[in-house]
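Record 1 of the preview.
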Amino acid sequence: MFETISVLGGGAWGTALALAAARAGRKVVLWTRDTDHAETMQRTRENAPRLPGIPLPETIRITASLKDAADSARAILLAVPAQSLRGVTEALSLVVKQGIPIIICAKGIDQRSGEFMSEIVTDTIRGAMPGILSGPSFAVDVAKGLPTAIVLAAPLEPVAEALTRALSSPAFRIYHSTDIRGVEIGGAAKNVLAIAAGIVEGRGLGDSARAAITARGFAELSRLARSYGAKPETLMGLSGLGDLVLTCASRKSRNFAFGDDLGRGLSLSEAGGGKLAEGVHTARILVDMARARSVDMPIAEAVADILAGRISIQESIDLLLMRPLKTEYET
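->
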């Protein structure tokens, strides 16, 4: 049913997903907007410097033509950064066949419109069938074929199940769901909370504090997701708790590394070594969404205020430590 998969996005994550799909037995078209990059990957069979030393099999064809990628696809994986997604989907709308599943692999919320990624796909592509692929996964691990388990959510369960079968392999295990909103809130919120965990690490506050910020951050994520009707089992699963635990514990997470650098005293421009940290773009809009629904998210608010320069890291720590004592389950 999904014999050919097109992956849009020639970064590390898009390339890793192309490799995973190829290992699952699919023919893969990998699109990158840069013609020179596409020609180099096609010639060298490698995406350097993003994933050096990992060969691309012949079952992956690289192109810089969006029409070529759309024409070939029976399903599309959108692996472009969250803040670039609208531009890509607007261009894709001109060439894509109606009704093809479009699976979003970015984790974030559109900074300008405040829309979820699935809403952008629905807005820009007529008759689109959006889905979300999310969960605890680092691109380099997936690219190397290391064991990984994630979630694919689509509005129709038979479609979600069929896509799961098409993309899964022994080392890349995908569970299916219909809880699109729960899966995408988990992916977006955890990026912001990972920055907080990184700040704790960089500040040298200890493992106990990092565990506490992760647990209380999960409570914030859960409150917001429940306000949108997310299922409790989604939040406790791979795309909620699982992804949060991973990204709050390793510098392989760009958001954690960004926060770690801030905690060590680096500036906003220096933190993260210039690599994209989606949580930086998501923090303020996430807090705005929470306030609109009267959802308390003090950790996310602290991150947003630090990023906006409204408060210092030490002031934010002091404010969090001075919050009223109450039962663990109070909002």
